[in-house]
Amino acid sequence: MAAPRxxxxxxxxxxxxxxxxxxxxxxxxxxxxAKAATRAAAAxxxxxxxxxxxxxxxxxxxxxxxxxxxxxxxxxxIDRNYTILCWNRTREAGPLGLLREDVIGKNLFAVxxxxxxxxxxxxxxxxxxxxxILQVEEETGSGAERRHYRITKVxxxxxxxxxxHVITVGEDTTERRRMEQQLFTSDKLASIGRLAEGxxxxxxxxxxxxxxxxxxxxxxxxxxxxxxxxDAGELRVLLRIIEEEVYRCKGIIGRLSxxxxxxxxxxxxxxxxxxxxxxxGMLAHQMKQRGVALTVAHAPDLPPVLANEGELRQVxxxxxxxxxxxxxxxxxxxxTTRRAGGEVVLEFADRGPGIPPEHRARLFEPFFTTKPPxxxxxxxxxxxxxxxxAHGGHLEVDSTVGAGTTVRVRLPAAPAxxxxxx
Length: 422
What we know:
Radius of gyration: 38 Å
Number of domains: 3
Largest sheet: 5 strands, antiparallel
Oligomer: single chain
């Protein structure tokens, strides 16, 4: 019987190390494969860490593309010639989106001519030169179409540290900015409300004293106590003016106190369509006098809201009056109700002159008004904002000069009632 063949063995020696025994599998035992196995074994013996790195599986290219396409932000990559090399699927969506097939390999500024080339090119040059991330804020559109974006440019470096490409990531921050602005406005108005409550409390007593004194003097003037005065009639007129103005001031103080009311007022399930129709009907005569055409569109499947009906009536009255006062010589008022997710949305749209941009940031401030003094102290939107916010809702204003204004009230829909059979 023939003796069994011995398995080939190699002994390799590392520099300044003990010999290493290497086993070569039978399947690799051919002259060519043996040499390859020997070279691999020698490489591992000389640099075991490097061999392990080389053995790690490379990230699959399809997986990388899927990751880039799955990002919830728009992303594209350019080289130093502004040639687009990557364009993810999110960047294809939206009003400014373009298909990947239409942009890859093309110049960025040819694909997006709306970009301000001088500014954007300067930003790219800065990233290529400095090798640091650059972040800027941008705004597009106007009015209801206005959007805010945070643009981040990230340098891509080669093995020697030189920047060869730039990744641009665009994140839509419109909703985040809106929520931050609402939070800021709520905090600001809450502080003003606390201040107003203190002022109202301090003013109530002296105003009541002035009103009582004016009434007493007026009664005496009517009881012939001033019969001997030549100007008694004029004095009575002045006393009535004092009395009227005192009560007007008390009304303003009362409205300031309304803003600081306890949010725990009684609430019930309310159909906003019925409340809105009631308020609009109450003002129908004023609309007719001013020549304002009213249209109302209600969603048929509108859920109720959990609210205080009297407070909602106050908000709707203030918003409709504002729309009428913005159109003293005719116009149109369109009232709509609809459902949006878990919210009930009411819109009050007029065709008035619109609100200048410099005034929009102050709309919810107390006593801010562009109307004549006799048309009110400027507390309508201020108080309305407080009521809507206390109900867990939002009050929004979209306006375009020369085209009109839309005020939007968003209220959370009331939870559905549970029904039990049997």
